[in-house]
Amino acid sequence: MKSLSNSELIEGIKSGDKRLLGKAITLVESKKPEHRKQAEELLREILPFTGKSIRIGITGTPGAGKSTFIENFGRLAISKGKKVAVLAIDPSSSLNKGSILGDKTRMEELSKEENAFIRPSPSSGFLGGVANTTFETMLICEAAGYDYILIETVGVGQSEVLVSDITDVFLFLKIIGGGDELQGIKRGIMEMVDLIFINKVDDENLNKAKNTKVELMRALHFLPSKEKDWKVPVLLGSALNNKGLDEVFSKIGDFIQLKIKNNSFEETRKIQSEKRFDYWVQEYILQKTKEEKSTENFYEAHKKNASQLKSNPSTEAKIFVEKLLGK
Ligand code: GDP
User: Residue 37 class from Cβ within 10 Å (0-12 exposed, 13-18 middle, 19+ buried)?
Assistant: First the structure.
């Protein structure tokens, strides 16, 4: 592939050229040092044109209807004059087990829309790294004028935390039933959500759906409120039949307005940036350590000690960092 200059990429991004947008994203996903260098410059140049979108995280177990939701919600937003980008964070792809999110034919109708851009999950790197390049991908999409960025993940492992660390609003797609799961692992998700959508509700199961709603509201009642004056709405609907999506759209708008009023919108983004800064500090320390001949050897030596459990890995890491900083 002929590599493109940043000015070519930026011109492409700004003019809405999806092919060049894709190439810019491939650049930020690359781990090669020379690509990373170019990516840093690109990000610096586009920064003034970023930050204006609404960043929405969407989670739910496989089969809950996330892609159906995104397809129809995305089209709804487009019908309201918005541009929509869809990104994914897929924990399975970073574990190299193939992708939960990526291997279906997904969002066919949305992908045909001029004002939609769909980018599957980056396929390598550990999950934290994937989330961090997804954030940068989001910035590029913002510079390209996308108003809504939908970031999809699956309700397993740490992926929700990572998605909530890069988004403004976090949406949980739920199917009817499964009350018992509220006691266990899903509690973590419940503490993170801003909005719940019970999907696949029709006339036949409406009563069951209402029961699920009551259970969810009860569970939410015992959790500390994440945003002042915000009671997490539990909405019912059908992604497939376009029911309840308009309500989700307007609740997201309400939530963003409230955050702005509470001064927590920018504040949350600031805290998120600080976390990302810490991530990159660790990343670059490791990278530089491995590059420099003077530090590579004792890095490897301590790593070996850790792997052979000569002592606790955290002890080895501490000794190594102290040596590195000349302490
Ligand atoms: P994901 O794995 O969470 O992305 O779920 P999908 O969007 O792929 O949906 C899984 C299945 O549920 C598909 O067969 C969808 O057609 C179906 N589905 C999604 N939303 C609804 C809905 O509102 N009603 C019904 N009956 N089926 C739905």
Answer: exposed
How many domains does the chain fold into? 3
| Cα R_g (the chain), whole angstroms | 21
Q: Containing domain of residue 13, as a range?
A: 1-48
Tell me which residue has its CA closest to atom 18 in ligand 1: 65
Asked if residue 242 has its Cβ within 6 Å of ligand 1, the reply is no
Same domain, 5 and 125: no
Q: Do 292 and 161 lie in a common domain?
A: no
Q: Are 60 and 190 in contact (CB under 8 A)?
A: no
163 in the same domain as 144 = yes
Please give the single-letter amino acid code of residue 72: N
156 lines ligand 1 (CB under 6 A): no
**Other CB atoms within 10 Å distance of the CB of residue 135:** 22
Written as tens digits, the pLDDT of the chain (327 aa) is 568 999 999 999 999 999 999 999 999 999 888 998 999 999 999 999 999 999 999 998 888 999 999 999 999 999 999 999 999 887 766 665 556 665 555 788 999 999 999 998 776 677 777 788 899 999 999 999 999 999 998 766 678 888 889 999 999 999 887 654 554 446 678 888 999 999 999 999 999 999 999 988 988 888 888 899 999 999 999 999 999 999 999 999 999 999 999 999 999 999 999 999 998 898 888 888 888 888 888 899 999 999 998 889 999 999 998 988 887
Give residue 66 CA to ligand 1 midpoint distance, Å. Answer: 7
The rounded distance, in Å, linking the Cα atoms of 39 and 132 is 13
* Any ligand 1 atom below 6 A from CB of 64: yes
